[in-house]
Amino acid sequence: MAYGGPSSPTASAFAREPYPARTRHAYALTLSCDDEPGLVAAVTGTLARHGGNILEAQQFDDLDSGRFFMRVLFELGQGAGVQDLIRDFPQTVAARHMHWRIRARSERRRVMILASAQNHCLADLLYRYRVGEMNMEVVGVLSNHPRDALDIPLIGDIPFHHLPIEPGQRDRQEARMMRLIEDAGTELVVLARYMQILSDGFAAQLEGRCINIHHSFLPGFKGARPYHQAYDRGVKMIGATAHYVTADLDEGPIIIQEVEPISHADTPDELVRKGRDIERRVLARAVRHHLDDRILLNGRKTVVF
Amino acid sequence: MAYGGPSSPTASAFAREPYPARTRHAYALTLSCDDEPGLVAAVTGTLARHGGNILEAQQFDDLDSGRFFMRVLFELGQGAGVQDLIRDFPQTVAARHMHWRIRARSERRRVMILASAQNHCLADLLYRYRVGEMNMEVVGVLSNHPRDALDIPLIGDIPFHHLPIEPGQRDRQEARMMRLIEDAGTELVVLARYMQILSDGFAAQLEGRCINIHHSFLPGFKGARPYHQAYDRGVKMIGATAHYVTADLDEGPIIIQEVEPISHADTPDELVRKGRDIERRVLARAVRHHLDDRILLNGRKTVVF
Amino acid sequence: MAYGGPSSPTASAFAREPYPARTRHAYALTLSCDDEPGLVAAVTGTLARHGGNILEAQQFDDLDSGRFFMRVLFELGQGAGVQDLIRDFPQTVAARHMHWRIRARSERRRVMILASAQNHCLADLLYRYRVGEMNMEVVGVLSNHPRDALDIPLIGDIPFHHLPIEPGQRDRQEARMMRLIEDAGTELVVLARYMQILSDGFAAQLEGRCINIHHSFLPGFKGARPYHQAYDRGVKMIGATAHYVTADLDEGPIIIQEVEPISHADTPDELVRKGRDIERRVLARAVRHHLDDRILLNGRKTVVF
Amino acid sequence: MAYGGPSSPTASAFAREPYPARTRHAYALTLSCDDEPGLVAAVTGTLARHGGNILEAQQFDDLDSGRFFMRVLFELGQGAGVQDLIRDFPQTVAARHMHWRIRARSERRRVMILASAQNHCLADLLYRYRVGEMNMEVVGVLSNHPRDALDIPLIGDIPFHHLPIEPGQRDRQEARMMRLIEDAGTELVVLARYMQILSDGFAAQLEGRCINIHHSFLPGFKGARPYHQAYDRGVKMIGATAHYVTADLDEGPIIIQEVEPISHADTPDELVRKGRDIERRVLARAVRHHLDDRILLNGRKTVVF
């Protein structure tokens, strides 16, 4: 009787997976701008002239806002240089209010994770990081609790910053946090159940590069203790929401939401436990989509390709 | 090449299914009361003395409210009389604030459906009724639109009542509705997207026997045009909620909720279309659970066995 | 207390929805071919030169098969003629083994539905058709049962063909079916739980334009009575699969699959009932995706944009 | 701007949660036997006479097999002794082929986990164990790989057994495994993606106390490399199945199944990655249900209350 096939060799399970063949010399282009005819032709014509071959692409035109969104995964041949493409791009594609970026798929983005005593999202992200599932470099873990209290062996040699909360010192603490974030060259901040007050200014500085997990199916149960709110209301499903952080609490652009059924027999403690599973899954998917250049901001909303 | 097995004989597909063998002479007992030790023993002892055999049962003790809930499906042997059981029951089982009911599983409850121009829930319920999927007798369809406007051939010979809305005449109209409901011996009223104002008094009179479908995942997007609210907020899932009607708008005890994923490409019209599928599924399940004696009221919540 | 917003006017709920504004003068281009660099640029360049504006598009490159797939929704301006575009297209875009099609979004495809005694999928498709949810023209309903037996009032004035199965006459019956299908100008055949033997030749003739619903989560429980198989095996979920019909039974390219949880308490009859809901939902989605030009064949598989 | 409520105190997040108040002095009774009238009355009467108060209970009568199943959570008052109840039980409740057990809810069952190089299920179970989510004592981790290769810091001081596979030595290795399992007083063996051949005899010895996770939605894709099979077939969902191990490969009684949608763009590697999430979730739920006395064997099937 066999369970599954032959076992893989005894190499460390934490060794980074070699990047799959199909993404060697591969790049992601993301672009948003005011819509006008001919955009896709201009972009893909430029790619073609530089020897690019498209692997996967999506385009979307928001008729409400008049904004156009595009994501292209493409490969460049051996001799072709991405720097030439990047230099030529703005001359060949011109549209109003255009944001664009070309990024090598092999590039790992620099991520700082903020966590509090609820450590399940932190533990989950670090496990996925260690097995090579997330295309990122964790440049630091920051918490208002000491490292021993978090008790996550997977932190290993990742720089750990303990910034305890002191009454009346929020501004000073946030200034130190921002310095740590910037000094580490952080490209994405992940609030992995970081249960602390952030000022509007701090949130604004991180706009579009800070993802939070809210432990409810927004817009239901905003604010504190959402699982207890859900229990009191007697809903039959609970959920979690990953969104970009904005100055407006629980109102940032939503990336992903998921739910699970519950029953009358679930106590608030059981909702909290079930919620942990949803939260860590939703947060990991949102971070992964961000690292995969799948999310484009569209005002208060997101386009997720 | 065959698709599926041999076809069933050419009898009308609308013929009522013969009630399955396992529920012949079967009964459902539902009971809620203040919790005290020995309740299950007292109830099941009484059933056993009357020759009852339990097919399926659930019990739940809400430690918050101190209320106990029980549902028992049981069979009685050939000679045994359910009337004896019903007569003896209150003498052998006594608890504070006890509500109980014993109902033959073969009994079809009398249901009145209220509908407006959005007819998908009405059409769905009537289809399920016609194929024998719902253990009910539809005693009437009531609408503020004329029958021709609803345009549902499945209404057939079911009594149809057209009560147009006239400004300033709500009290009079509701009095007529209530008379129709009562005259038909209605045991359950279903608001199948009946988009009209109901007074608090009307709602209160139907407490525990009137199910509504709300086209959002409550408590998110209460009130009007929830799909447009969802579109504006940029959520990534939409849902529907079936609940008992109370005087408190969109706050009645929730029976069932379901959701489906949506994307940035879904227009409000597409949300409305996708929502129709969720609504009719959720409403049918809630009505079915009610007819199946699976739902017990627990204050502002429900116990769904 | 209001349930939902103000009711819509008393126009017939079955009136066809006016086609939404965003798809006026809109077209869908679908294309598959052997992959080569520059394809997207060539296609979108051609569209741009003919005044096309892209609303939504997807591209996918299957690295295994070396095939490239593309779907573009685009609008043409007032003066622009789609006939010019269609004439120029093959000259400006050339690739090996290319299949392409440009279709007006307002065009309703001609659909023939085949049904047996299990009429839930037929009833569901016709309801969706009547409320304007499916962009199709039902040109006929064909059954081995007489119309009275099917008992679906929604058939209304749609041509109904009764072709009873006679032993040893399959070839003759299939020839008659094919003639009816072709005479009606049928573009898509839907097997809405049509539980009859089809010959390999018949299936081959309809390749890529005949959708079947199989009442299991393939590849589990192929063949007859899948719900009874599921019950006997004690699985905890049941499902349905919509796929294109091929000569190879239950092996055609899969379009959509969905499942629902079940429990030990579900009898085979209850599985059949729950399955009806899944089947009709899955079949409707698959047909809708086909009508929406979202599905491209990729050998034994599908690309669903 | 606050995310969530106030943070919890800086105690170690790995400290075991104090067992919630509602389960103090609480017990679980599970029972299966041939059905006969009066069983529930006899059982609950016995509980009542011993001062038991029922918190939650379910009963189910399988009309096919004629077997009756029951699970009761109950509390005993201060003075009441569970030993008296256990002693009296067989005298007051007698039925044919009866299996029954009364277990303190606070009792942690002894669990041995077997793992191979795919360590995600092991890592997940250990995390849940460390945060007090699983009511178990992990008495050992056993692998055919050395501890360094598994590289799971959470193993900590749990006894680790490395039993490398040597060709032609399976019998000897299994004998050593069984001795380790028995010596540790193991009550449940969990195959957390343990990808090795087990003999029929070994499987038979662990019947009803060994849970495996199969990385497909059984009965689809039995055997090796199910994600590659799924990719080749072009299915639109993948899943995982937790089941009790029997001598019959991939045919043991199913406990839980779950699925997730996939698309044409998912490579086999991506299916493997997505599958890891489903596998660890499904396995954890199955183990949790087992520890919670929710699963009763019913021949080749399970009853899951």
UniProtKB/TrEMBL annotation, chains A, B, C, D:
GO molecular function, one term: formyltetrahydrofolate deformylase activity
Enzyme class: hydrolase
PROSITE patterns linked to this entry: ACT
UniProt key word Lyase: no
EC number from the UniProt entry: 3.5.1.10
Reactions catalysed: (6R)-10-formyltetrahydrofolate + H2O = (6S)-5,6,7,8-tetrahydrofolate + formate + H(+)
UniProt xrefs under Gene3D superfamilies: 3.30.70.260, Formyl transferase, N-terminal domain
Domain ACT: 28-116
Active-site annotation: D250
A Pfam family: Formyl_trans_N
Protein name in UniProt: Formyltetrahydrofolate deformylase
Species of provenance: Castellaniella defragrans (strain DSM 12143 / CCUG 39792 / 65Phen)
